Amino acid sequence: MSKTLALTVLLLIGIAKGQLSQAQLSPEQAEVWKGEENYFRFLNEKDLNSYMSLWDPRFTGWPDYEPLPVHKSAIEAGTREEFKIQPSEHYPAPTPVAVTVFGDVAITDYFWPENDKIFPYIYRITHTWQKGRQGWHIIGGMSCEVPRNSQGPGPKTESDSEPSSVSAPNTGLPALTPEQAEVWKVSQSWLSAYNHRDLDTFARLTADDFIGSTDDGIFMTKAGVLKRLATHPPDADQRQNARDIRVRLDGDTAVVNYRFSLVEHGFENQVLSFELRRTEVFQKKNSGWLAIAAHDSNLPINHREPVKTDPATFKDYAGEYEYFRPGFVNTYTVEGERLIDGWKGDKIEAFPMGNDTFFEREDLGWTTFLRDQQGRVTGYIYHYADGQVTTGRKIK
Question: Does 155 fall in a domain?
């Protein structure tokens, strides 16, 4: 038997059984699969830099939750936010279903999460890898959510019952009821029409008296949105990675609220990424659900990179500060090698910018601590992004 035929038989046996064992992988396959193991290891370690190093800069893929294919920038933006909003989630490593190597290109296929028997859905995931001078990198991929059958991972069989509700993608929120799922489907069709610049579909799903406002406060009408879509190409901006979804129904009116990533492309491959929360209002009319109002709110995400600073200096800033008005007390503490802002009872890491100045990931402003002539910290100035400032004085 030739080596090629033997490899084909090996892969077919693995696929038929539903998975491959590590012992069945050839050295070339095991080398590629090591990349998938690192993929989940870096996710669990919340190591964004190492995780993103697995992705080729030219990556294009189609996650199940996206209406259009996305690039590496969207993967990074979504992962950065997942690391913040889901700090305790553990990502179990999968088992390979198939690993195929074609010289310097390889394809991996697996189910995930295969061991979580409680969750009614499972994902089929395919990644395409390419080997370069610095090893294997993901250049493409696709995921698909499918119901779990009673025997474990895989597509639903005829004996499996239909689910009574639809899971809200990418959240730990309760599943959507069939009525809520109907509205969410319309919302996603509306979003897809926006991203594709499908003017006919967007107009059909939008009420003539629609009103809305953008994240920068601009009032919009149906005619205004259609004009913008007609004059801005699809790659100008894409609304991606809809998540944290809530749908509320009250008779013939429905409110949809979710978070999404806005990715904008500019000159010389410049890419900007923003996080927003969106509220949409739909009303059921003879032609079905129509959008009658919408509003976007910008979520402050700070993309600065911290500078290297001796963590031993953080103890200088620890203490209690009376901020802005009497009785309004804010506390800074040191945990290991991190400076922690106890703003309103939360624990938020403050990252050094240099010269006694710090920023936080979910705040566009920054804080500069003040010292007296002896070098002791006596207070701070908080700088709002719009130029306003407030002060805090150290009281303990």
Answer: no
Range of the domain at 55: 3-147
How close are the terminal C-alpha atoms of the chain, in Å? 79
Q: What is the rounded distance in angstroms from the CA atom of residue 183 to the CA atom of residue 362?
A: 31
Q: If pLDDT is split at 50, 70 and 90, which confidence band does 17 have?
A: very low
Residue type, 189: S
What pTM was estimated for this model as a whole? 0.57
**C-alpha dihedral sign at 146, 149, 155, 158:** negative
CATH of the domain at 365: 2.40.128.50
Helix (H), strand (E), coil (C) string for 130-165: EEECCEEEEEEEEEEEEECECCECCCCCCCCCCCCC
Q: Are residues 142 and 197 in the same domain?
A: no
Instruction: Specify whether 20 is located in the same domain as 143.
Output: yes
User: Residue 361: inside a domain, yes or no?
Assistant: yes
Q: Per residue in 161-217, pLDDT tens? A: 333 334 444 444 557 888 998 999 999 999 999 999 999 999 999 999 999 999 989
Residues facing residue 130 across a β-bridge = 105, 137
